[in-house]
């Protein structure tokens, strides 16, 4: 009896409900086609199980030695240029075409805002340039970009060169050098000197450790329990804020002029200006000093490491680079240090830097959020969705860059397609430190290739887990021999 009842129900379902639904569907289709000429598609993709979505797959990718970009790469191969997924209960669309990049990054329609995951926003602070509201961002960015003038870049080049020369000179005595670790120390030291003339060994070491803890916390689940990465990151942030308070307090009292970023940002006691509202407040200064350390140290050090690796794998490029650098060395050898102008005499090295940045794609995608329902490339993007410009996929698109997996610096002899080279982003949120980052990479590779040859000690290609910017787990350990020693003992 029961069975029959169900059967009846099924019949009813099959003969009445389905045809009705079908008719409705047809009607909708007709309406749709008459109101819109091109039907917008919803991006393809697997949304996974409700609420959790594909969070578990994403976390697994973060915790794998292929790097978390693998999560994106797999889906991009499966679904194409534009796909969506669901992570931490939110819809994320990834898109990888130069046209979409242009539309989203230029933000001419004003439909896309910057969006960071909660854990990152809490770690860098809500006054940080990365997370500030549109209005605040304008004010802070104008203050900060004034600091990256030609004159200050010149003095930064000199400082960075001094640091690099000093440190590279001690490499003779070591049996193994881990490029990433050395680059991290040098870039931190250079950035801290530039920001606030911080040179104290003890404080630099503390910062090094604490900034490392913040990096590790950035991708973690924002859970405040004492044993979590996130909690440890927040504690590290607190310690850094105390140090910055101490430095700012001392600077306010001091009458001496210091030629660093902090001095330019502070209004000192006794020199209160009329336009005080347009000055930055203490918390804004502190959050943004931390932001510049976080945005500049790890990115630049990772980029240097990838560049050395790519050069090692491409002996022709390395030879040509060394040729250019040694010719320049003959010219500048009388001067103690490289100048900003010298960096303009390194056309090949500049292309090596650019090509390495393309291949490394240190910041693999740029997160934005749609403020309105809108359409991109024929895909519907709903208000509130996260839309990420997948720069790494664009950098490896073989329609744009031939043989994308090969280091070919000469590909930049000609101008590249607009919005195809996105290592530093584009539009109103372009990297503030791009000239500085390029300069640091050029100086480092100049000093390395003109002083040493190196031999790789561990060819493990695993990517470090839990890092925001992809870097080699091994850190690229090498053994170095001085180029001069070689001349003296040609058979060694
Ligand atoms: C090779 C090294 C570097 C790379 C690959 C890099 C890459 C980027 C990218 C792609 C963005 C934009 C992200 C987006 O649009 O969502 C960005 C923003 C930023 N970068 Fe860099 N960066 C590097 C070095 C530096 C350095 C050395 C500094 C400063 C000391 C710096 C400071 C900043 C700041 C402050 C922003 C935020 C700008 C804003 O939101 O208005 N970066 N960086
Ligand atoms: C784009 O423009 C809108 C409106 O002016 C603004 O609210 C938003 O913050 C902008 N996005 C970025 C990334 O600057
Ligand atoms: C490093 O080695 C050089 C010779 O290769 C030597 O002159 C110098 O004193 C050594 N420095 C240290 C700190 O051991
Ligand atoms: C640079 O070398 C000096 C020794 O000459 C060392 O004390 C310092 O820690 C090094 N700094 C970096 C950033 O490696
Ligand atoms: C952007 O938003 C406006 C409303 O602010 C909307 O009219 C427009 O269609 C949107 N742009 C696109 C490309 O969808």
From TrEMBL:
For this UniProt entry, the molecular function terms from Gene Ontology, in alphabetical order, are:
heme binding; iron ion binding; monooxygenase activity; oxidoreductase activity, acting on paired donors, with incorporation or reduction of molecular oxygen
Species source reads Anisodus tanguticus
Listed name of the protein? Cytochrome P450
| Gene Ontology CC | membrane
Residues binding heme:
431
Instruction: Enumerate the subcellular locations listed in this protein's record, separating them with semicolons.
Output: Membrane
Q: Which domain of life is it from?
A: Eukaryota
InterPro entries associated with the record: Cyt_P450, Cyt_P450_CS, Cyt_P450_E_grp-I, Cyt_P450_sf
